[in-house]
Amino acid sequence: MKVAIKINGAQVEAEVEDRLLLAHFVREVAGLTATNIGCDTTSCGACTVLLDGESVKSCTMLAAQADGREVTTCEGLARNGQMHPVQQAFHAEHGLQCGFCTPGMVLAAVSLLAENPDPTEEQVRSGLEGNLCRCTGYHNIVRAVLAAARDAREAS
Amino acid sequence: MIPAAFAYRCPATVEEALMLAADAGEDGKFLAGGHSLLPLMKLRFAVPEVVIDVGRIAELSYIRDEGSHVAIGALTRHHDLERAALLAAELPLLACAAGCVGDPQVRHRGTIGGSLAHGDPASDLPAAALVLDAVLVARGPSGTREIAVTDFFRGLFETALEPGELLTEVRIPKPAGRGWSFQKFTKRAIDWAIVGVAVQGQHVALVNMGPVPMRAAAVEQRLAAGESPAEAAAHAAEGTSPVADINASAAYREHLARVLTARALAEAANRA
């Protein structure tokens, strides 16, 4: 079937198999490989993207289900060469070790902060429960998300 | 993992979905949020030839106050249930249970209708629907019918829905007994419940204590006969048939059912 998805602001259209997963559409059709495929079983969150601004696991969605909708991947977060505030906070707080979970973790955090701009540490931890860090580097990830929320408050 | 090949259909209305389902017959399967069905398809445990994506039927996503009951469209997502002011006021148990499903990403996709129609005894929402005396509305080739939730779950992944029938609405009477609790015991945050317990008033239901989600009849009878919550909870495992698996033995699940039921009844009493 023909699928058209606006990814990071650019329309991507392709004739694909009906069974193609969104994760594969993003990586192989759109060529955007920041989105990692980790467990492939809806557990680890490495493949998290934003669908119309909300976090979803792209290994558990058909590309067809995203037809006509907007997807944001980690490549789409920066503006005018400036990292997104959540990316900046991950950088400043060293919210990553090997980096494999990072794109999904950042997008899950962007979605979390969109829904709750002023989360407690507990809310950050439960809000990121769908994302696993194989390095177990959660401490700095949580600090980064709290720092991003604080920076946004101070900037506004 | 890649699902087996299938034909994807995307109806815009319930009528169109029912026609597509009638055409597909036993080879067709409805897809809502896809967070139960797609994992099974990727493992090739489910191999439908036609996937009918009802996920875009906007008319089936709503939460309405109907006076004596709350009407919830089958495609209402867990995320929406979790945050709905009407549910926080009238059906806090359902909002809480929906907020316990999976993780935020799953709750952005998964739907109440999909969760109930999947008929998984380890899911959270069936137990909530059971203690809330939900009525499930299904539309099919021969019209619309209402199914009491106590008649809905028939076996492992098996419900009262006939082939070609689509669950369209969940009707939940506003509960008389206001005390409620939802207990979910997991090893890790996003896991399915090893055992779970839902309580609303004097109603008690169990998650993952047999092939179907079930009411804890022995506990309810003893509460109705005037026994204390602690005494009644000691009978929570009666009439259950829990599986033994990688997470727990059957005996451990029975123990959890008793402990969690006691906790749930105590919490519900505090909230009543």
Question: Would you give an account of this structure?
Answer:
The complex is a heterodimer of chains A (156) and B (272). Helices cover 35% and strands 15% of the residues of chain A. With 156 residues, chain A is an alpha+beta fold. Chain A has two domains: 2-76, Roll (Ubiquitin-like (UB roll)), CATH 3.10.20; 85-155, DNA polymerase, domain 1, CATH 1.10.150.120. In chain A, β1 (2-7) and β2 (10-15) form a beta hairpin. Chain A is globular and about 45 Å long. Chain B is an alpha+beta fold and 272 residues long. Chain B has three domains: 7-53, Uridine Diphospho-n-acetylenolpyruvylglucosamine Reductase, domain 2; 58-173, Uridine Diphospho-n-acetylenolpyruvylglucosamine Reductase, domain 3, CATH 3.30.465; 180-271, Enolase-like, domain 1. In chain B, strands 4-5-10-6-7 form a five-stranded antiparallel beta sheet. A four-stranded antiparallel beta sheet of chain B has the order 11-12-13-14, sandwiched between helices. In chain B, strands 1-3-2 form a three-stranded parallel beta sheet, with helices on one face. In chain B, α2 links the parallel β2 and β3. Chain B is globular. Chain B starts with 6 loop residues before the first strand and ends with a helix. At the A-B interface, β4 and α3 of A face α2 and α6 of B.
How big a fraction of the residues of chain B is strand?
A: 15-25%
Question: What general form of chain B does the structure show?
Answer: globular
User: What form of chain A results from the Cα inertia axes?
Assistant: globular
Structural class of chain B: alpha+beta
User: How much of the residues of chain A is beta strand, in percent?
Assistant: 5-15%
Q: What is Rg of chain A?
A: 15 Å
Instruction: Give the total of beta strands of chain A.
Output: 5
DSSP helical segment count of chain B:
11
What separation lies between the terminal Cα atoms of chain B? 48 Å
H/E order of the elements of chain A? EEHEEEHHHH
CATH superfamily of the largest domain in chain A: Beta-grasp domain
Rg calc of chain B? 18 Å
Q: How many domain units of chain B?
A: 3
- Share of residues in helices of chain B: 25-40%
Overall tally of structural domains of chain A: 2
Could you name the CATH topology of the largest domain in chain B?
Uridine Diphospho-n-acetylenolpyruvylglucosamine Reductase, domain 3
Largest sheet of chain B: 5 strands, antiparallel
Helix-residue proportion of chain A: 25-40%
